[in-house]
Amino acid sequence: MEVPCNTPDAPSLQAAGTLGAQQQGRPRRAQSMGDKCDKQAPDRRWDAYLTVLTFNSQQLLMPVLRVVDIQDAFAETSNVRVAHLHTLAAFPIPSLPGFSRVSFSPKPAKAPRTPFLGVSFPISQFRPVQHRESTPKPLKGRTQSRVNHQPLSIVDNPLVASSLLDGNTLLRHAAALAGRFRVRVAESTIPPSTDLTVDLPKNSTRLSAAQPLPSRAEEGGRHFGGQRRQLQTDCPSNPANTAAMSSSASGFLGRSTSNNSNMRGLVQFIADLRNARARELEEKRINKELANIRQKFKDGNLSGYHKKKYVCKLLYIYILGWNVDFGHLEAVNLISANKYSEKQIGYLAMTLFLHEKHELLHLVVNSIRKDLLDHNELFNCLALHAIANVGGREMGEALSGEVHRLLISPTSKAFVKKKASLTLLRLYRKNPDIVQSQWAERIISLLDDVDVGVALSVTSLVMALAQDNANAYKGAYAKATARIKRIVIDGEYTPDYLYYKVPCPWLQVKLLRLLQYFPPSDDTHVREMIRESLQKILNLAMEQTKNVQQNNAQNAVLFEAINLIIHLDNEQALLKQISSRLGRFLTSRETNVRYLGLEAMTHLAARIETLEPIKQHQDVILGSLKDRDISVRRKGLDLLYSMCDSSNAQVIVGELLHYLQNADFAIREEMVLKIAILTERYATDVQWYVDISLRLIAMAGDHVSDEVWQRVIQIVTNNEELQVYAAQHSLQYVKSDHCHETLVKIGAYILGEFGHLIADQPKCSPIEQFMALQSKVAACSSSTRAMILSCYVKFVNLFPEIKPQLLKAFQVFSHTLDSELQQRACEYLTLATLPTDDLLRTVCDEMPPFSERQSALLARVHQKHANTSDKRTWIVGGKDANADVAEMKMAKEGGLKRTFSTNTNGHHAANGGTNGTNGHGNGVNDLAGLDMNNLGPAEPKTKAPNLASAAHLSPNWDVGYNKLLLKGEGVLYEDGQLQVGVRSEYRGQMACLILYFKNKTPTALGSFTTTLDLDENEKGKLTWDVKNLPESTIYQNGQSQQVIMFESKKVFDKSPTIRISYLAGALQAVTLKLPLTAHKFMDPADLSAEDFFRRWKQIGGAPREAQAIFGLAPGKSDRELNEFFVRQTVEGFRWRVLDGVDPNAKNFVGASVLHTSEAGKFGCLMRLEPNYGTKMIRLTIRATDESVPAVLLKVMQDRLAAGFTQEKFQAPTPSEISDAFSNILVT
């Protein structure tokens, strides 16, 4: 096919739009055109990317050409092979300067059905085939300058195909670039008339510039069959050529079918607008078209196709910037259409014309819900795009359930799940209440999805949810850890996600960051998995490579791993490695590496016990303040602020003051805040504090916020040793010719309060103080003048000798036009002229000390991090500041405690206290006085239910539990899908439980997860350590196990529970109580009758005795009590039955020793008196500690009251006998 070349003013190049992957194969030597290449003219290679904004692979909406790089290449001219082309469509793109012909031939490939918003992919590496002239000609009408390397496309990452983007932004960019953007190129060595070809496989279809794209039906199964053709054009400014070009683009807004030729009116309209040379002509053409469309809509009886065509025209007018105030309802009605092309345009119009509070949105909610429930994945995706773009609070409340259903449905395709996850994330950020607490477990299970893209999008969602409600999503910790290990250690990923030899870098970064939102795990197995993964990441980062993309990916993962190591705070070996490595990053030539190194070291300073490793690089860090990049300077300032202590405070503050004189205006206010905080926090000398504070205000001037100078006044007022020195120096500053107004405010207050303390010193007399302030009145604002008047009325009380001058000043201001100043002056004048001074002395009495915690300096410092989507787990300011925040959060939340497969008795809190400041307060809290509630995660409005607690036990949980109370191994639970077995061993206060999970289904159980829990009142009494996690997938008839170590620290009353969840089509879960009670940690003790009664009497009665008289439990009256059952129960509870001790032979007497690690050992004695006739029992237990008898009594009473059932004997079947004998023989 032939396409006319273009003038600089209008695009003319028609090309076959393709959705492709990376180019493959080696370039071949050019063989077309038959002309010889001029060897003396160097090659100019074009690396270009095309971003196609589209909703499905068969329809190209708008192209954007991005010139990424232009390089000199002296290699032989050649053609470039392009592979994996998915579809074909013609569209207008900006012309390439210096080229007159371009040949494209598409390769047949199966078009994916996956719809998406945007994909970036390389078209080819363009190389000129032939040089017509040896001397390059300049490009006429174009500025010859360097190519702008800023990306022109909206989507930068080729792997982020499911990103949810704003429709307005996409189309506005597309409209601005399609046919309007001109590529500016450096001095080109390519002659204007150069043939450019792209070598593709044979059997491709010829496309004419004047004909639409063939449909699949017209191709007759050929799918782009045919011979390789060449595309040639005539040159530029022929209007006919332009019209022909525009008409060939008729398929870019509809499906590539033969019917698209009927949309020539749309294409002609676009061509008319492009050919309009003046704004008035364009406006005239648009008004004419709007009148026609309005008339068509009024007449009615339009088919869906014509509605689509006219809505497309309205869309094009809208994205050109013209107002469209009608047609919205017709556009919205297209959403209900059954045809994909019409529905697509309807959704596109909805995202452009409407906003989240538009009244028409109420009309489309049901249509969107219908598309969400449809079995057509394309319709699902269109609806998800619309919800994410314009969905607000009301739409989120109405449709969040359907979005969640698509996310968790086992029948949803991977690309639908990705979009559903990101849509739910978008809705959650607008209204956190739409995500229900009971969804947590099902959402977390998707972290194990085999599709890396689904795992990536779900991780983004879980990160946002965990920041606000870490306890509800605590199960994600173990899953994220296991997923990182599978990627980094086990290499479980597909080759598609190996990005420059770095596996799944985006997923790694998100998982590593997710782990930082939870306290460090106490599980040995989980800690070991994290340690192995982090060590492997550090080792891989040691490999130096010259590939920039690989370096970027490695550094992204490396720095997030470093942040996690710092967060864990207990991996000393890893901390030593990163400390030395961060020092090298600070001296890197790459700006990004220096920036990340400074940020990571700032994080390290917030956690590390000693700052000595960081102080070694103090000179380099100070040098970062002079970096050319302001972002690096900001990070250097943060690090200096965090690493400052009493030993280096004066050096750092001095350097910051020196740099402040030439600092960028964008960071001056932040520098002033941090210098003020450091000066107060680490001041060891009174004079140094005053000098630095006043010098800081004098240098910074307008960049000093009110909090800074007000805090100086508070400190001076509250510390007597500062008052004289502060009054002297503030007077000196006020006397100077160039005194900033902020210093006048400080001088007015301090001299009014403490000016009498220096009145007897040279050059500090009352009249000199008055004249110094009076000389600054004319140049000050109203607020400062008000402070000066207040100072004057204090002078009337302190210095009667200058009262006439003061009264004259009041009289002058009593006639001012400023009402505030006039009222003050009149009141002060009246007060000063009263017959007696009693009222004046009362009013002007000395100010009391300010109450502590009134400053907001730290709140201002941390304000810039308050509104980010991903909250930080630390704050800038060193270990002391983070310790204060941790304490406030712990007090607010009751401690961040983990209860999943880990020790839940301990809470995570940073150690350390604040530094005193020599009478200036009590460190950070006194300085800041801020509400720390804003620094922690937001409180969830409704507390998520703990599904692993005893309140959610599954039916029939007690069948196996009651049996295993008396035995060491057996089946704990069994249903049609899962069997849970237990094997246990006890030694003193330690217990080892091995849980067996067997899959009884013919299919695999996926996302297999176990969560341990214990009642809040029992945490700290019983702890556990998980030695391993069960396999995430248990295959057909397969089995997995989990080993858990328990330690009894004190006597506990309630047993721990375990929740087992897995995917078997839908999410299945059971909650069971583990057969672990206090009696399991008892050892039988042998006692003689004499020793037993002696100890029985020694222990005595209450409170070391517990007794109960009971019979069979309600509903168990049909059961039996006999001697065999009672003896078996007593021995099962690990009592040594002492026969012959009790005078009544029917009674049972027992002794045992209970082991605990913290409280020690307890001697326990038991006496059981049964009455088998009445089915009654009296049970008495005594122990050496008062907390033991009631616990043992309760658990034994529950078991004995259940009685037993005499089961009928059933003879074993022949197969059972055979199995029994075979087991014996094998043994």
Automatic annotation (TrEMBL):
Residues 229-254 have a biased composition (Polar residues). SMART domains: Alpha_adaptinC2. Gene3D superfamilies: 2.60.40.1230, Leucine-rich Repeat Variant, TATA-Binding Protein. Its main location: membrane. Residues 13-25 have a biased composition (Low complexity). Residues 1-40, 210-254 are annotated as: Disordered. Pfam families: Adaptin_N, Alpha_adaptin_C, Alpha_adaptinC2. InterPro entries: Adaptor_Complx_Large_Subunit (IPR050840), ARM-like (IPR011989), ARM-type_fold (IPR016024), Clathrin/coatomer_adapt-like_N (IPR002553), Clathrin_a-adaptin_app_sub_C (IPR003164), Clathrin_a/b/g-adaptin_app_Ig (IPR008152), Clathrin_app_Ig-like_sf (IPR013041), Coatomer/calthrin_app_sub_C (IPR009028). SUPFAM superfamilies: ARM repeat, Clathrin adaptor appendage domain, Subdomain of clathrin and coatomer appendage domain. It is a peripheral membrane protein. This is Clathrin adaptor alpha/beta/gamma-adaptin appendage Ig-like subdomain domain-containing protein. It comes from Colletotrichum lupini.
